[in-house]
Amino acid sequence: MKNSFKTTQFNLQLLTTMKKFLLVTLLISCSAMAFGQSKMACCPPAGGSATKQFAMLAADKKFVMAHPLPLKYHFQSDIGKAITYNTSDGKTAGAFFFKAKKPTNNYLLVVHEWWGLNDWVKKESEKLYNDLGDVNVLDVDLYDGKVATTREDAGKFMQTVKDDRAQAIIKGAIAYAGPKARIATIGWCFGGGWSLQSALMACKQAIGCVMYYGMPEQDVNKLKTLNCDVLGNFAAKDAWINPKVVAQFEENMKTAGKKVTVHEYEADHGFANPSNPIYNSQATTEAYNYTLAFLKPRLR
Question: What integer is the mean pLDDT of 205-211?
């Protein structure tokens, strides 16, 4: 009887130990699953970069040929000046800067088309500077001084832009503006996509983003980090940043809980540049008026 009692007691202790072991194992498994799900939510799978996707278009002969050779365009500003600033990769970058007439923390970062930081971009920046009032306008140069006059060079320059260098240039521009700066962004074509990327990099300093027919960011998790509204001026006849791409961008922004206002014009890619033979003056005027109406209240 005594041995039988000891055996029963031992079996009960063994059963209790096994239950505890199974419970601990179950808790560890659940914790691992929860951690895995949390990690997935915070770190979305790596996807194709929107900027790289647009740069790859330079390898598409149809895309290259869809950009007519620019007409001769000359402009020399009396109020803007070339500057140099430090970049986050330990180098420097050149830019064109319009300093506000009165001290202000309002900044507009301007990103050029696939042609580079040419005279048209500087003229457009001066126009924005005059029309917006007290604002510092900074034209960043993602081509590091190179300006294209042929489609072939434009495609080559756009393809050779490395994301890490472009990001360093933009981060340097944000640092140049300073930690108290309120930053809006604008860009066309190649620069339209980088305008949105610049707004993402500006984090809580971003107050508005304007993109003209540029490649939208497609990663919803990245869009969730955007701190400002977006205005998109797109071309309905654009064969690449087409209405389907634009509609998907609107859907992605909605999913991300962000606001985007889109205007589409019966025009071609590049319609806002008067040096472009396919320039559309009506669409340009409408888009510019919407741009001012969007930026002015945000840059007060």
Answer: 98
